Amino acid sequence: MSDHEALKTVVSAIAAAEAKYGRNTGSVQLVAVSKRKEESDIRPVLSAGQRLFGENRVQEAMAKWPALRAHYPDIELHLIGPLQSNKSEEAVATFDAIQSVDREKIVRTLAAAMRDQGRDLPCLVQVNTGLEDQKSGIDPRQTGAFLEFCKAEGLTIDGLMCIPPQDENPGPHFALMRDLAEEHALPIRSMGMSGDYETAIQMGATHVRVGSAIFGARD
Length: 219
Ligand SMILES: *Cc1c(COP(=O)(O)O)cnc(C)c1O
Description:
Blueprint: H1 5-20, E1 29-33, H2 39-47, E2 52-55, H3 58-71, E3 76-79, H4 88-94, E4 97-101, H5 104-117, E5 123-126, H6 143-153, E6 157-161, H7 171-183, E7 188-190, H8 197-202, E8 207-210, H9 212-215
Parallel strand pairs: 1-2, 1-8, 2-3, 3-4, 4-5, 5-6, 6-7
Helix pairs in contact: 4-5, 5-6
The structure holds pyridoxal-5'-phosphate.
């Protein structure tokens, strides 16, 4: 990988951060965030070898990805944006993992959709580490109780996801999320975006979600 310059730069920077911070080679997965980007922007990234992508809207993913999957059957697509409960069936049919489980109602509708469709998608709980009103995610102090609820409803949770406040140093937020994941023995930690993924790798990210650094600015 690859003949896509921006992708190559990000992939190299991830490898360099793994080495610099004592992380195992290949221990950090790149989720290429293609929200609001056209198929014509995505195809070059696919042909350069990237297979793991993130989208934040169910309808947009349903419109874009079936055609791409027809050519690349090994694509893995993660939902990284807030989910409306009436879209759970479509989300379970469209995505391979849900990173944005953030409230009890979604736990119920996702678990029901997975039972209906006989699908068992990896799920992450989104944690609102900055306790921001406008941001999705559970209160970090509720993590244990929320995980218990998921378990009781039959939804398996594999890890945590967070988006730190825009105007703060992300380090302490990544550290809090890492500690919560460790405390609850959750192997997946999705944190870090274009501006801060190297810090996230330092803090133990297993997945970084990078959009604009690969695809350019969004409209
Ligand atoms: C848009 C988005 C990203 C990628 O953001 P960039 O700054 O473009 O890398 C990552 N995570 C989530 C949840 C997003 O919505």
